[in-house]
Amino acid sequence: TDLAAFAHGLPKAELHLHLEGTLEPELKFALAARNGIELDETTVEEVRATYDFTDLTSFLAVYYPAMRVLQAAEDFHDLAWAYLQKAAAQGVVHAEMFFDPQAHTGRGVPFDTVITGYRRAVVRAQDELGISAELILCFLRDFSAEYAMATLMEALPYKAWIVGVGLDSDERDNPPTKFAEVFARAKAEGFFLTMHCDIDQVGSIDNIRAVIEQIGVDRIDHGTNIVEDPSLVALAKERGLGFTTCPVSNSFVTAQMKSDEIVSLLNAGLKVTVNSDDPAYFGGYVGDNYVALAEHAGLGAADLVRLAINSFEASWLTASRRADFI
Ligand code: ES4
Ligand code: ZN
Prior knowledge:
Catalyzes the hydrolytic deamination of adenine to hypoxanthine. Plays an important role in the purine salvage pathway and in nitrogen catabolism. This protein is an alpha/beta fold. The protein has one domain (about 1-315): TIM Barrel. It has 17 helices and 8 strands. The protein has helices at about 1-10, 25-35, 45-50, 55-65, 75-90, 100-105, 110-130, 145-155, 180-190, 205-215, 230-240, 245-255, 260-265, 280, 285-295, 300-315, 320, and strands spanning about 10-15, 90-100, 130-140, 160-170, 190-195, 220, 240-245, 270-275. An 8-stranded parallel beta sheet has the order 1-2-3-4-5-6-7-8. The longest helix has 19 residues, at about 110-130. Bound molecules: 6-chloro-9H-purine and zinc ion (ZN). Zinc ion binds near residues 18, 196 and 277.
């Protein structure tokens, strides 16, 4: 449709994207072959058949084991480069991409290997596609705060390649305050801060309140349960906090797109953005997410333009670079 073409062509920033969530089955096979790793599945269809997610837990149970095909810096480069080319084809002119170093260091791949490979793709995207990209280091919240702090320390020599830090993986029993000290240190080091506040988690609204009032984040990933507390909505608006929503991902991990919540926050004037989360697993890159939300919620071109403007306003581009886009 015309609106779909418009959504894909609209220049936009993507702010909620897990690089490890961009591993398409075809690349998984190629990397497995290159690294001499045997996979249980032999066809793309067999791999896709394992993508039978009903919630976050069933997703993460497929997501982490797949990463073992990533071994050398070249593998991390190839993963990020494949994503950046697809993103550029869907109108992305700037990407701030999460990576999960602990998912690799925890199985013996050095931090330097991971970030060197990803960084090469970032530089290449600027050179060959003319788009900018940044890396956001995510801590895995189901591991200890001590391991997160050690990972932050390991990252400090690479500070120039990392724009901010985030928090992902299983939120249950792993509230934001568990990582208060790690995020305070990251802030003191000059990193921007964001945290996942997943949809309909137990104690969601309390976690959202904590990331705003105690952690002092610059953005919230997902976070749409904030609609439950109008005073927090007002505070988020006053602070200009960005919200990185992921409609297609929501449909998988909660069985609902949460479009009413997304649109209500957008119309309340919050810096709501639309993003793809784990596109290889959920089957939609960022333009596809704009289209899915537009179709589900009956949005028009003006709403999509608002979402795209928000994506630059909620980005961590410098003010002068941001002004190139809006
Ligand atoms: C994630 Cl959908 C989702 N939720 C939490 N952590 C994640 N890491 C990658 N995708
Ligand atoms: Zn996410």
